[in-house]
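Protein modeling request. Please complete all fields; requests missing the sequence field cannot be processed.
Requester role: graduate student
Desired output: 3D structure, token encoding
Chains: 1
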Amino acid sequence: MENVGYDAQTGLGSAVFFRTVKLKDFPWNGWLRVAAAARPAAAWNPIAGFSDETGGLVWSALGDAAVLPEPYGGGWLANRVRALEVSGPVEVPRDALAPEPSTGALRSVAPGLVARQRVTYRVALSKFHDETKMTVADVVYPYVFARRWSAKDQQVDRATALLREWLAAVRVVKVETEVRDFGDLHVFLETPVVEVYLRHAAEPAEAPAIAPPWSPVPWQLLVLMEEAVTRGLAAFSEDEARRRGVTWLDLARDRKLGDALGGIAESFERRAYVPEPLRGLVSVEQARQRWAALRRFRRQHGHWLVTSGPYRLQKWSGDSTVLAVFRDLSYPNVVGSFDRYALPLRAWVAGVERRGDRLELQVEAQTLTKFARSYKIVREPLRLEPTGEKARDTLAAHWTVVSAVDEVVATGRAQEVQGGRLIVDLKGKLPPGAYRVLLALALNGNSMNAEVKVIPYRVAE
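Delivered output (461 residues):
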């Protein structure tokens, strides 16, 4: 195999591994065997399952998260949602929706509500494994779920605590249509633009990961799991299953539970059931089609684990699990989307010029040239695109200011580019005195073994 990406902390047991690795001899139809230290023990459900080593490995391939941990840094990597803007404070529009604390029902916000921060996202929709198209209903239903179930399962409570504390409201601004041209074939992709309003303000680089509008599974599968738990057939988490004396919800390996879920899904299809919070977002006909597709998927594949990820659960036993690549032209992350993380490149501060309260950084970076299956890495001056223009690579300067007595006075992250230089603006951040500014660059989020440049800096009285 080749093109192997890994995570600096978790190694190969990470989402970036499955999104980069390629087979040399059989790029499309070969087999990749991955071993784990122990047999799977945790139940397979996307709420509070997949919690052991093997389960985590399986879910990292099956499920598509909104954002992924940067494999060589401490930030976040856009996957299915991309933040367009982080701004605020801002007044929340009256047509924004907020989930009620106990029921999760989506209600219009009160007039005059001010959010500390607004994150605007583009959401990359695609087909689910049951061939149904994702919609806005799938995107917003996790907000409903978090409110409805946090008081009923401690694991759900812990997993959703940050979202519930920070989320003020959500607003679907519009749904854009993109045409993907494959020659004789044109694929139309719908991309919602969604605003998420937060009660608190976070660092701009962290804010997009707090409450992104996304779900790796369709709304009807969440509803089916909710109904199973409500009827006492299973529990989302291991602790709650033990406390209630029921089975731990498993959407694949528990055949008895799977059959019981089939009866519930059949009833919901006949009724074209739509949960109250989604009425107005899902029509009767859409609901009936969703339930029919979910049931059809289970008949064909023997399980209920429908996701929108790059791999589909094909078969399993006590010793092995087989995942098949889900090939669909609507999937946004095409082959090669994560190649830059297979060979992480570095950047250096080659020169610093002070202009008033700003430091202007000249940058050198590694560039990669490939020749078939060989490659060459060269260090050279990096041409930076002006802020706002689309660039292939992302570059950030992480800076820390230390006082004369070695106390940290200020820290930050700079990405502004002017005149081909990276700008660190310290205006208004420091009182008069003598300091040292520590600078380290991260190219495409790669902070490993970063060279730290130390610059003397004085602020006059």
